[in-house]
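== Fold encoding ==
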Amino acid sequence: MIVNSVADAPAPAAQQGPVRKSSSDEPVHTEPFADVDEAPIDDDADGRRRYAEQLTEPPLPYIEPQPTVPLVVDEYEAEPLPEPVAADEPVATQAPKVRRGTLDLGLLILRLVVGATFTVHGLQKLTGWFNGPGPDGFADYLANHPNPSIGFRGDVTTILSLVAGVSETAGGILLILGLLTPIAGAAVLGTIAIATTYKVTLAGGLWFFAADGGGNGIELEVLLAAAAAALILTGPGTYSVDRRWGWSRRPAWGSAACVVVAIGAAVAIWILFNGTDPLTSPGNPAG
């Protein structure tokens, strides 16, 4: 519906007040509106309101707004949006490839040398090869007939001889292959720890260099024990059967636990089956 008031209806052109229109050649003159609250409305004599002089056309008539009809949209199925990822959830990212250089080659050389050394010593004890004592001869060495008080108990020497031979032989072969490296390293580490302690006990003192103390220095034993522990803690490297396992290149606390277990087992065997204090031992009479 269109509503026009009498005051707002446009008058005929003859009766309407003159409207000043500007042209491009004539400057536009404007006058400010008077405040409604301060100044009265300036109307013509016939009651019709004058247009402001700055307007060039009459104002548009007022049109009453009509009610709107809501737009109906057909329903449709939309694909579900992906679920947002929580801020605290880790985002899977591909780990950068680490350049290892010659590290794996160095570990291979270390494994071959240490593994071959333990394998040969183990075969000496088990078979008597390479001028070894064999199982019976090594059992007598453990019993220490010159001074049985500082030797191992006679009822377990045969078993300990076999255990030492198997541990060194099997552990050495596994180190060469790089297979089950933490277990293999722990086996040879525990064996060499007992051998080092027994050597100091029989010598009646601690010497480091191999030629000191009548050839009873522990230089070689310390080197082999350190190499075995290093292989457990660093892993066998890429050139190994264990290359698909985490301990081959990224050893964690499990490998460190193998070192602790190996040393703990050596201490337990020494206390149970020997019990001598190696630093205060009188040693053998011939020593």
Residues 1-9, 11-17 have pLDDT under 50 and may be disordered. Residues 233 and 256 are 6 Å apart (CA to CA). The helical segments are 103-127, 134-143, 157-177, 181-203, 212-215, 219-234, 253-273. The longest helix spans residues 103-127.
